Fold each of these.
Amino acid sequence: MRLKRTAPIALMAVAALSISACAESERDDSGGGDSGSSDLKDTFTFGAAGAPDVFDPLYATDGETFRITRQIHQGLLGITPGTADIQPELAESWEPSEDGLSWTFSLREGVTFSDGEPFDAEAVCYNMDRMYNQEGAGQQAAEYWTYFFGSFSDDPEGSLYDSCEATDESTAVINITRNTSSFPTILSLDSFSMQSPAALEAGDANNVQAQGEGFTYPEYSTNPVGVGPYVLESYDQANQTITLTANESYYGDAPATQNIVFRVIPDESTRRQELQAGSIDGYDLPNPVDWQGLEDDGNTVEIRDAFNILYMGLNPERNEALQDLRVRQAIAHALNREQLVQTQLPEGAQVASQFIPEAVSGYNPDLEPYPYDPDRAQELLAEAGQEDLTLTFAFPTEVSRPYMPDPQRIHDAFVQDLEAVGITVEVVSKPWNGGYLDDVSANGAYDAWLLGWTGDYNAADNFLGTFFSNLNQNDFHTSVMPWGETLSQDLQAADAIVDEGEREAAYQEINAQLRDEYLPGIPISHSPPALVVSGDVEGLTPSPLTAETFDTVTVSQ
Amino acid sequence: MARFIIRRLLQMVGVVAVLSVLLFAWLRSLPGGTVSAILGERATPETRAALTEAFGLDQPIYVQYLKFVQRAATGDFGVSTGVLPGTDALQIFVDRLPATIELSVAALGLAVLLAVPLGYLSARRSGSPLDSGLVILSLVGVAVPVFFLAFLLKYQFAVEWNWLPVSGRQDSLGCTRITNFFVLDGLMTREFDCSASALKHLVLPSLALATIPFAVIFRITRASVLEVLGEDYVRTAESKGLTARVVRARHVMRNALLPVVTTIGLQTGALLAGAVLTEKVFAWGGIGDALARAFEVRDYAVLQVLILAAAGIYVFINLLVDISYAIIDPRVRTR
């Protein structure tokens, strides 16, 4: 009996010994580099809400991925820290031709990719052509190219990009097919970063394949080579950690902190506890209700300038009563946006008077939001003969966006406001990824809904063009309105104006018309998103585009 | 016995096959979907149509299903679109299974090791303050939501006292990965600090995950022992002078264990459900975490693989339960 009992234990011990004999430690025990001063940590640890998709930014689409690729890659143009304005990055200057269709970029000299390959005009053209020449599944995966440049080389008609010439080692000329305010600003987007041609070739970077109901990505997408201050050290998928380390061959100042570790922590309250426990140094988008508490605990809540818009969309095709401007104005007067901003939105949020935030060129400072005036709303409804108006008004569930921290609460408040002026509201909700977006844009299934937009770069077209330029396919169904076509044409014309001053004036005029004459939807608010870092962190500049680079960040012990 | 096992294994295949049809149809009949999740606010009708076509989601559901079965037959269960885009869905399951097993084994081990002896003790001293105390504790264990308990545990042990880590599976120590069972890997490679770190990370999540199985197993054990203690054969055994130890081992526990084993089996299946929440709040990176994420972003391939595998595991565990029945109770074998 006794023997029997000890036998399994002995067996297990033998087994453990035998397996430990066959496994080798592969650990590199050299330890982290010393970042010079001993009162600073050599690692900045950031709590990410999700895992990154791919490290080739051309195929990336989400903020969690861009936050990482931004530290590894740089583009021709960069963003001035703390603003939404472009500044030189890998291009030192740029100059358009007379007709605005040919842009000459003078490149920074003496720059190499982290694999030692030179960054020169050839590399620029290689990158531009590589993006333009995507084929098959690569075209679908390169979502940002489609969005900002239109189409690829197999359909040159629809493409903004035409060609690229390397006139000498440090001069690249990029030709485009039409004038737009977006160029060259879009070259500052992470997706269009410059990557090492040799590494792209070696890693078969364009080999994206459709397989089943998804895409497979080539080897390169896990071995990115850029020119940025950091390089990808490792992605430990089992432990959900991404480690970056300083790029030895970076042309600029060496990063203030040697390593950055991104830890994937999907649950927000867990991220907060990790910060409290001191095991991470910061995380993005803390819930506005936590801001005060986080500050009280000695952390720094870095509030970015608002670069977004929350609006109530209206569909005059589904509900014909909404074709009457007086009805739309009545809704604008009925909504108590001032109170919403004060009670529900984060500190620094503003009531929106127009569809673009203040930092965007073309913002019209003379416009005032429609004041909260339920009596006026009722009068307008009576004038329009719509005292018995019924609206199907929808909000998304299972989502929180920077411009809309808690959709249901915002919706609740507005439902009360609308009912107070005699409008009957049919409340609809759907999960964000569970049909809401389809219903808003593809199906036009609601009379009114909540949605918003966070700007990609500083151009009014990125907001207004997105909403109203495409006459036949926009969420606001402006095609049924008599002014729909004019608005669409005016927006396209304004976007093509080369002179900056003239363009700004044109957009200001359009913004005034949108408020006074068109009112296709109700602009609600601009909400500043924040990120939070512990009190030991310094040197982080919050970016309105949420495009922070971490190379200047230090963490004291 | 062999025939019994083979029959049950065949049943398992049937269950998974039927489930795959239902699951396939159900996932695709949900509104929204992969394409919306990927494109977000940026969706235009053109990009939406292009992506739908590229993924083959524009075809009739039965065509999609046949293609799925065809590919599945070659071991290709599709590619992730959201959890880890571009990665084989089966690979995601294989990579993440060790994390979930590590956590589940720890949680279930904790629950069983505490619940069975305490349940026996409670029954033996039925009516005593110890018994009442344990019964109340088990009630609380069932009643407190896992996420709330997890929050409290983390707050007290990690944030306030700084004894244990808040979340994750291991510190960033650059550990070598062999099996992805972190504790085991550390032992195998003699990176003992890695094992220690992994064990420290295991404590709070396994406590949180163990509460419900503990409470359920404790109460079944207690009830079952109470019942057996009242049986004639126990009195007979005692009266013919057998030692207390023999009575306990051969007569009481052996008979009381049957329902307990069933319960443990069922709880093992239920652990997966609990793991979804526990893994998320502890950033555990296992199956449960992946399942929650896959649902958020409508990652069909990953959802299919994870749910089918979970169902398969559930059926398999029940098979193990039935086999252990046969071992504990010889009467079952002849049936």
Amino acid sequence: MARAVTTRRKALNTLIAWSIGLLIFFPILWTILTSFKTEAQAINDPPLFLFFDWTLENYAVVQERSDYMRFLWNSVIIAGGSTVIGILIAVPAAWSMAFVPSKRTKDILLWMLSTKMLPAVGVLYPIYLLFIELGLLDTRVGLTIVLMLINLPIIVWMLYTYFKEIPGEILEAARMDGAALKEEILYILTPMAVPGIASTLLLNIILAWNEAFWTLNLTAAKAAPLTAFIASYSSPEGLFYAKLSAASTMAIAPILILGWFSQKQLVRGLTFGAVK
Amino acid sequence: MATQHSRSAARIMMAPAVVLLLGWMLIPLTMTLYFSFKKYLPLRGGDLGWVGFDNYVRFVSSSAFWPSVQTTLIIVGGVLLITVILGVLLAILLDQPLWGQGIVRILVIAPFFVMPTVSALVWKNMFMDPVNGLFAHLWKFFGAQPVEWLSDAPLFSIIMIVSWQWLPFATLILLTAIQSLDSEQLEASEMDGAPPLSRFGYIILPHLSRAITIVVLIQTIFLLAVFAEIFVTTQGSFGTRTLTYLIFQRVLESQNVGLGSAGGVYAIILANIVAIFLMRIVGKNLDS
């Protein structure tokens, strides 16, 4: 969309857009800045923006006092595990729906979507009870399973929309040349499907990393991921702004970086292909 | 033969996903329905027998019910209004030619990737705190009395936090939709002398209507389930108890499972009403 505009107009657009962009980003920036202050500087009146004694002390304290690495590890296992398992289950399903569609394919897809609409709180107690009965409460395995299940519909949908874009003629041509199903998948489909699978992986790690209903309700000390770790700062003792900021920065940094790579997939994944 | 073969192969490949989701849906749903017809207090006597529709009646007639519905509607409506209006404006702005477009887009989208517990706590403490928050400093700077945001304007505060999280989502989707607009059409109208406002009203807005509908429906489903933002800020006090939070309290805090389950069934019905509209749009998209 290269519309011809005057340089003045472009400069004005730039000024407004940057101001708004920075305003929206400011809470994140402020959190990052505060994480490098001492607690006293963090609540200084007037607030200190850049001219303070930068320190890494908070990061050390958070790690030491609350064993940050354990929560991080839980987040990595739960988000990564649920996404990988979800993709392993979803790839064959999406593949068959995209390439061997039947009359019921559409209904199945819509039904899968409808399971995503089920409000979590409506099934909170049953899941809680099942978790107690099965000994899954406060375990990484349990949480991985639940997050895999709640994201499975999105994974299937995203993969389906990506696979749908692979031209079926290529497969037919390969079949005519005598390729078996296995070869078809291995040599033709996989290379074409990898970008779509990678995008799906990325978006679902983000969703699982930030999930904050089941992770808060089904964990205690042992399997708590970063969402629950941060929530423990809601009833703090003493000065804690700088430490809260350091903990928050560490919790969001990996996902912020992943997220910037996945802007486009975000739209496709979260609108179930309705907006591309 | 080949098709027959690939059809049954397709069925086998679909089976794990279908079976898992079917189980994930049916088992807890059946249990919720089952509990909703029982007087069930795990900490005070356990299963006390069938009570018919008692829980359903009691849930609706409890004094907490209507305020929670009202709170839910205010939060969902408020966030939708803010994110859709600002989202349309931001999308139009970001679609204009400007320097560093990619970076601005990244800045605008960033809040969506912040986990709910972090954004709620950062806003609560570092911005809305009446003593040390940035807003308090700002208010004092202008000689005004700092506001106790979360107790004096609790709903507004939560709407602000949640809007900050969801504005990126609305903006990103509306921006994607705007970018698919035929620029020739806009240029033609510009040359015909259509003022910006009528270009917006007659070309851009109608083009965006479908994307706006999708934003509204998807956000509604997520906003009805807002939980962590309330959990770490007000814990449902000061009139911020949404339907979701009320059910959570009934089920896990006061362990009145029968009553909470009946509430859960209401929540499921409510979400399904929204879902039907969304599925219709998505379904139409599948056909084309």
Amino acid sequence: MSSSAKAEAVLALHRFGMGPRPGSIAAIGADPRGALIAELERSSPSQIALPGLSSAKAFRAVNDANAKRQAKAILARKEQDAKTQQMAQAPAMTEGSTPGAGEMAAKMAAEAVPDPGRQIYLEEARIRTEAAFGAEIGFAERLVWFWSNHFCVSADKIRSMSGAYEREAIRPHVLGRFVDLLLAAEGHPAMLFYLDQTVSMGTNSIAGMNRTRGLNENLAREILELHTLGVRSGYTQDDVIAFANVLTGWTLVPPGDNPEHGGEFIFNPRLHEPGAQKVLGKSYEDETVEQGRAVLRDLAAHPATATHVATKLARHFVADAPPPALVERMTKVFVDTEGDLKEVARAMVKSDEAWTQPASKLKRPSEWVVGMVRATGITQADPKRFTDGQALLGEPLWRPPSPKGFPDDEGSWIDGVGRRLDVANNFAERVSDRVDPQDVIETVLGSSVSAEVMQAVGRAESRQQALALLFMSPEFQRR
Amino acid sequence: MGFRHHLPNRREALLGAGSLFAWSQMPRLARAEGRDPRLLVIVLRGALDGLGAVAPVGDPDWIGLRSDRALVLDGKTPALPLDSFFALNPAMPNLYRLYKAQQATIVHATATPYRERSHFDGQDVLESGMARPGAVDTGWLNRALVELASDGQVDLRGSRALGVGAVTPLVVRGKAPVMSWVPQKLLAASEDTQARLLDLYQHTDPKLAVALQARVRLAALGGTGGMDAPAPGELPEFGIARLRAYVAETAGTAARVLAKPDGPRVGAASFVGWDTHINEGAASGQLANLLGALDVALAAIETNMRDAWRETVVAVVTEFGRTARINGTNGTDHGTGTVALLVGGALRGGRVIADWPGLKQAQLYEDRDLKPTTDLRAMLKGLLRDHLRVDERALASTVFPESADVTPTSGLVG
């Protein structure tokens, strides 16, 4: 293999994939661009298996556990209070009775009930991480990560569903049409819960008139600002309110009421604001749930959405300031194909601009960590260790700081490089008994590292230090 | 007779570049006056409900606006009276104590020049110091530091600002280098490994070298490697307990580093979670918990700054306020006017600065938000001018562009 072919294969794996694994450079070296496209053709990101763990089921399990915990706590408090009272009636014992004993007993009883939420989160983290470790190149998985961050929810608010949301709403559509992805994400119970939609009700809806509660603008605003058109693209506060009215009624089945369907999406007409609504100059007749779907379909087809999405994709994969020609081409393909996301991804890797940019993008912590592990050939994930590591690096899994998701620019992450060194150091310590740094350079990276890196690794005082330096090298940090 | 130069001591000389760093970052003019001021900026992301933090209990329309969710002096959890008009959320006893000791100032009905309601554009304007959102990659605090150095006597290679958190806040990004520190630690790489990596970066990637160098310096100051940090993998739990622990530890450690004689003088941190769309709970609930965590953090800063506290100002700011009325889900939506909080021993505090706009329907901004009557930049400019001695012309041009008509607030410190 020529050195330029090798260099393009390395770039393909770092920039568009999850990073090189043993053997991957040789596998794609003949035609890296073709290999990326071929991976899109044969991938089905929706097929990652987690039998029986739907978001609704997870939500119900956590809800049931919470209810059980509360019941146990009440019971324990009652028993303790009764005991305290008995003791108080026996004069000799009064000094021994402790105030707050009831609270203590309640707390202990509650804590004795296991919390299934954490286990579910870790299991979801494991299968997601192993999908990234095991992917041939990982282009499709990178697209999953990108879209999951674009349509993010937060495990801080809804931990039970955060992983299942990605499997149910994101994965089936990342190589499909944007409109389907949008409809799936905005209608998913996790998103409705995360952005407060489940409790929003029209002022003139049946429930609204009975209960003096009302509208919540959160989801409507973030759909316009973050998920579709983009900020400052022309919509107004009135559009936000009208759209929020349209979306009233999009909620979920209360988990406690329904052991079979609790936690699933439902359109509740009692919450829905009656009447037509005008969004972005167009009037939408009230057709219950279809009113909202009609607005979402129009937003998906809006030219501002095409520009917003294409820019964000190019920025994520290619450069913090992506070449305008690349963005224009991807935008055009988005418009021409009515938002076919596989075609947009294909257009990106077929463009020369996507390859001529220097490797100046700093990998996000999640990409970097996965790349580091892949280079060692490890394919099994310890989800606890992995999620702890990502949290330390400032990118805790499915827990972005805001609905905007994690940032994608060098300025946000570069000051964390010292922290990466600690993580690399720890990882190197754990694998140094079975991973040889020279071997990683030669067989995984095809010897395509700078002379300086070669030298630093060669002169390291220990295998562990050599590995830490290698994982920290610009070759691993940038793409 | 003559000038007293700071001569590097043995340890500083051994640190090489570190010695220059150690004294170069002191605001020169302030130092010439015999002061050594510290500034910590805390950004609350998500938009703090200013009316829920500092309630206008003397306004006749207040209770009508929020009914049973209005903080009042005779409520179940009574608000703490600041003056005859304003009262503080009861979740903030430390701030109240500092206020009574003239070490806290509250600016109410304030906002940046941003008038839309996107968090992210709002935060960009707040942190960039620009008059409007758009592509920006530097923050006003960093540009203010560059101005302090404009006579060429200080070396920008020295890290002068401290960003706390794994993601550097925009407000401190820019030409003046930033150190970052992340609470939660794990086994640190050895000094030797750090030195070797630094050498590699210096030959291959200067930007990564600068970032790593900052961390090496911070380690020298004792900001990392503390024994009180949790063991690897012991991450705090989800929810309010996690937030409280995180906020207190972050703020407390920032203060410990800022308090060092050879530490940085300026820092910034940001805390998320203020976007209270639903069940806001100002008196007891979500917002009360958040404010309580912030209050603990302010106390941690006061304690950890030790003697330097009397030369310290902590500025707590947020991107915008929230709707004056409660929304349909017992929360508040994105709004405009809000509060900014100043605490610190350097303040001439104990007052609420407000040109109160009123709460009648016609007095609200767009019939929904507290109307902003004080430009937040006036306060920040006053602080930078009088506390750090940043040149006033620079404040109106490079630090806060297009702000010539925003007069710096006088008399905040001293």
